[in-house]
């Protein structure tokens, strides 16, 4: 624990603890939710719109479902959204950035001009347009956001490769006749891992927020699947009289997004400290 605090600092350690806690909540949702059936979407109309109480710690929604149980089940969707958006963005952007930075010339020019086309549009607006074109759904919302995010990873990977391709060990491998794919996979890709990992950790929070925004607009997962953004949208119709309906999932989104942001900052600071120590 002391080593972890030394590496990440207290804010980073606390943020990591919150992230781990929510991951465990997502995994154990059916066992820890007070009302698992309601968390999965079963209505309970005799208890609709009840305020927080001993029976329903965070109140109930318009169908009488326990909001705490819905938030616990929604953790699965929301965290998966954030992680998969970042993963899909990396799968697209990383190969593009590696190829552009390593080969240079017309390959770099063509790939970066294609990247600039996506960067020319506001990310959230493009995600909304893509989601509207694909239609609501879990996978569609992930694809819609990933399509708007991969250019940033392509740019970051390219910048790292431009520095690495001139390193002596890369030049030596090239002169030894090692193939381009082997050089990229064995010598360049591992060295780009740390900055991309830090950026990915920073991006999970914003990705989660963007996915929640799509759900808020009705372009995310479909009911009765629990989703935090969808819950905020449903609860706003009853706000402020039934404030708990939208406030509780909204607060959850804020806490998780902030935790990922602080964790990413701590990892970036650790990377910067390691780089300074090496000089």
TrEMBL record:
Domain named ABC transmembrane type-1: residues: 75-264
Family, similarity comment: Belongs to the binding-protein-dependent transport system permease family.
Name the record gives this protein: Peptide/nickel transport system permease protein
PROSITE patterns xref list: ABC_TM1
Membrane topology category: Multi-pass membrane protein
Phylogenetic classification of the source organism: Bacteria, Pseudomonadati, Pseudomonadota, Alphaproteobacteria, Hyphomicrobiales
Classification via InterPro entries: BP-dependent_transpt_permease, MetI-like, MetI-like_sf, OppC_N
Subcellular location: Cell membrane
Pfam families registered for this protein in UniProt: BPD_transp_1 (PF00528), OppC_N (PF12911)
